[in-house]
Amino acid sequence: MTPPERLQALIPLNALGRENLAALLREARVTRHAPEEVLFKAGDTDADSIYLLEGEISLVRPNGFRRALAADSPDALYPLVHLKPRQFSGVAKTPVTVARIDSATLDRLLTMEQSCAYEVEELGGEDTDWVFRMMQQPSFQKVPAGNLAALFQRLAPVAMAPRQVIIRQGDAGDAYYLIKSGRVAVTRKLADGKVVPVAELSAGHAFGEEALISKLPRNATVIALEAGELMRLSAADFEKLLGQPLVRWIDLDYAQEMLKAGAGLIDVRTTGEFARGAIKGAINLPLSLLRRCADDLDKKRPWIIYCQTGNRTAAAAFLLAQRGLEVAGLIGGLDGVAAGHPENPNQEQA
User: Fold this and answer.
1) What is the pLDDT of residues 101-121, one digit of tens each?
2) Domain 3-103 - what CATH class?
3) What share of the chain is helix, strand, coil (3-state, %, to 5)?
């Protein structure tokens, strides 16, 4: 059995549908190792599911106990020493081939397929690669499975033609868009009238969230670069299914505890607002620049976001969560801190 055929028989990969399995296999990292090479160590807390495809390995405990495992054994259908931190080290006894698959992506695909299979098939037809790419985005990995099922039910297909304006800077935000096929360009018009490129997005990416979260006009224009198809989610459905689960709000007391533990603090107001006064220790990353600066932030460090009222905080927190950062918004912003009794946006008011 060749490695690709072997992968299709693995558990729980064998529970995936054809399209999701094919997409997952394209992301699998298949590597070959010589005898005595260490594949993983006891105590590792990596994010991979590791499968033995060919050869034989030794599983070794820290106390010296060891047992052999061959690729043709029933146990090799399952991920190797999957409990984290790993209880064994894995050492190649013979030349071996292993596959590494991101555990979170696999789990999300299984969850989505088992809870949303019908909706995904209806939306994607024979092409569900865009769904796989969408599910790999950090923001969607934080959305509860029940919300995902509802989201797929409420997405509406929208065709786009080359050079079509999808959203226009200055307009009110009324929807969130996922790109099923095609490419779009994101541009922004500056105060001096100059139009600058912001980003180019393709299948699996999304846009339109900032205006929905901040309740402010669109801050960019999005134009189709080629024919394609979008999936549209209304503002109300976005807020319920995506916005609320992705934005975590904390009060000042909890923020202070996080700061003592090493969290970073980001002020997303304009440079002019920041210059007139800010919370001690904060760095200034205006919301308009956040997309460009997000990759420079330490993903191993939690971040607290604040603005004046909380509106820009929500948009910033969503953007950073989309990029895999651990973020929390300060309830009510500086106005809430000054008032001394800000309301938590995650709580329903009587």
Assistant:
1) 988 778 767 766 655 554 555
2) mainly beta
3) 35, 25, 35
CATH of 247-339, one of 3.40.50.720, 3.40.250.10, 1.20.1440.230, 3.90.1150.190: 3.40.250.10
Q: For the whole model, what pTM was predicted? A: 0.53
158-234: CATH number: 2.60.120.10
Which parts of the chain are beta strand (E)?
Answer: 29-33, 38-40, 48-54, 56-60, 66-70, 89-92, 96-102, 156-160, 165-167, 175-181, 184-189, 195-201, 206-207, 221-224, 228-234, 249-250, 264-267, 283-284, 303-306, 327-330
If we measure between CA atoms, which residue out of 333, 309, 305 comes closest to residue 321? 305
pLDDT in tens, 118-159: 455 555 555 556 666 666 666 666 666 656 767 777 889 999
Structural element, H or E, at residue 267? strand 264-267
